[in-house]
Amino acid sequence: MMNATARIMLSGFTNLSEVEPQPISITKQTIFQENTAFENFLFTLAHQQPEQAIRLLNEWIETLPSYDGTTDGSDVVLPGVKAPIDIPSHWAEKPVHFIPNGFANPKAPRLIYIVRNQYFFCQEQNLREWLWKVHGTKSPQRILDIGCGTGTTTFVYGELFPNADVIGIDLSAPLIRFCRDWKAQRGASKVFFYQENAEVTHWTDNSFDIVHFTYVLHEMPQENARKILQEMYRLLKPGGTFSAMEVMYDETAQEREARVSRSRAAEPFLEEYMHLNLPVAIGDTGFKYIKRHYDCKFPSSDGMFLTALKPNTRE
Ligand SMILES: C[S@@+](CC[C@H](N)C(=O)[O-])C[C@H]1O[C@@H](n2cnc3c(N)ncnc32)[C@H](O)[C@@H]1O
What we know:
CATH architecture of the largest domain: 3-Layer(aba) Sandwich
Structural class: alpha/beta
Distance between the termini: 60 Å
Number of domains: 2
Number of strands: 7
Bound molecules: S-adenosylmethionine
């Protein structure tokens, strides 16, 4: 898969120069294994030589197991919900992270799964620590994780609060199927996954004690992000907690512009996200006591951890 040109191009990178990894075949039986050398290499390459990485990625993704199901997604929607659900147009039209056909690609789950070992914010031990620090004193009965991806945050919630029902939702039917397989492997009996559009879900008002997302709103137009915040407000019980980890909203316009231009190729909506100004947008939605807990400095992906409360009555 990696030709001579690719190797020559890589030879200039000190941390990659010794490496000539070959892809290892991944099946549904081996899909939860740790990252292979090739996958780590591909990830580093994406930051250093995106065009080269995209070419390799397009070849490699074709070899990965496909998470297909019914064509309308009726195997992954909530019981009683009519499939297919409405999918926002931006999600399919402007794929993020260089993924061919984006999160809808049935072969994308392994690619998304391996990222959790790369970024600080999606490593389980960090999530466990941060989520416990902000929620550890609570006894939630129902928790919603929006844009759950491969489910890492959802499973961490399930482990921290074993008595709660924890629900992960995502637009991607293939990712929901992957999450369900991972659930079976982890034995997480009170964690559930459904294909839902977080802008318009099927739960009644005030259904959850905690509503959360990890790195979701930076991947969509402002209008869609605001709809998700409104829906989170509707779903949260009065007195319940909103929490989110997201791309850092830097203090100065100059820093924000620099961040946008660094990530533009992989993050087509980052500029819109900066205009949203997430901490302010959370307040616009009606949430109170907005708190910025952690600013996690990490090369290429600094993040912030935010919480807010839904007041008992709208003031
Ligand atoms: C960067 S991934 C983050 C996944 C996961 N939270 C994590 O931290 O690994 C963003 C996820 O949000 C999902 N998403 C985007 N818009 C959504 C929407 N309107 N409703 C539900 N999920 C959405 C995408 O399909 C994708 O899986």
